[in-house]
Specification:
Order of helices and strands: EHEHEHEHEHEEHEEE
Structural class: alpha/beta
Number of domains: 2
Strand order of the largest sheet: 3-2-1-4-5-6-7
Bound molecules: glycinamide ribonucleotide
Number of strands: 10
Number of helices: 6
Length: about 220
């Protein structure tokens, strides 16, 4: 296989940044040919900014509270992201609703990880809602971002069993371990030019991902 050209990644975080860390580690281990050009947070106190600093990665806080409107924040964010000319924008615990204009600008070039088995439980408090509904399984989904909240085409999912003893925190911790495996895998596929969004579907090696049997299976079953 021809070696791919190094991809430029920009990662957006709002919180602790454990998913960011898994991506920093995957870059360091050369799991894929990419460089994190910048980490940007809407929250100046985000732990993810510190993780980036420790990894000598440019890190920038763009506090949404200093903007008059969602539109003006998204415009400034987009200008900042574009100054790094990324191939891929990665939402890693970025807890902001994005304007359709922003999303359209990065269509097919922006991924998100969401802590549920999408299309189940888009939005907030996914683990609490899954437990309250008596679900037997929970999980996480990496997907391309489209204007519909948590509604873009799925790339990879991880499933975990919900134990009778699980509470919101224990389930979140279980799922997070799997998030740290599936997000670098999706980024690896993108960096190898194997993954793209076409006609509203995620394709791996030119085949819609649902035909690969990867979605709806746990990470243990993926390639
Ligand atoms: C992760 O569980 C991620 O799936 C979730 O926030 C957490 C961030 O953790 N994202 C969302 O809920 C997006 N809707 P991290 O900061 O340790 O990566």
């Amino acid at each position: 296989m021809t070696p791919s050209v190094q991809k430029r990644l920009v990662v957006l975080v709002s919180g602790g940044g454990s998913n960011l860390q898994s991506i920093i580690d995957a870059c360091a281990q050369q799991s894929f040919n990419a460089k994190i050009s910048a980490v940007i947070s809407n929250n100046p106190d985000a732990g993810g900014l510190e993780r980036a600093a420790k990894g000598n990665i440019p890190n920038i806080a763009l506090d949404h509270r200093t903007f008059e409107s969602r539109e003006s924040f998204d415009q400034a964010l987009s200008d900042l992201i574009d100054s790094f000319a990324p191939d891929l924008v990665i939402l890693a615990g970025f807890m902001r609703i994005l304007t359709p204009r922003f999303v359209d600008h990065y269509l097919g070039k922006m991924m998100n990880i969401h802590p549920s088995l999408l299309p189940a439980y888009p939005g907030l408090h996914t683990h609490r809602r899954a437990i309250e509904a008596g679900e037997k399984e929970a999980g996480a989904t990496v997907h391309f971002v489209t204007p519909e909240l948590d509604g873009g085409p799925a790339i990879i999912q991880a499933r975990v069993a919900i134990a009778a003893s699980d509470n919101e925190a224990s389930l979140a911790a279980k799922v997070l371990i799997h998030e740290h495996q599936i997000y670098p895998k999706a980024i690896e596929w993108f960096c190898e030019d194997r993954l793209q969004m076409r006609s509203g579907l995620a394709e791996l090696d030119n085949t819609p991902l649902e035909n690969h049997g990867i979605i709806h299976k746990s990470i243990e079953h993926s390639d």
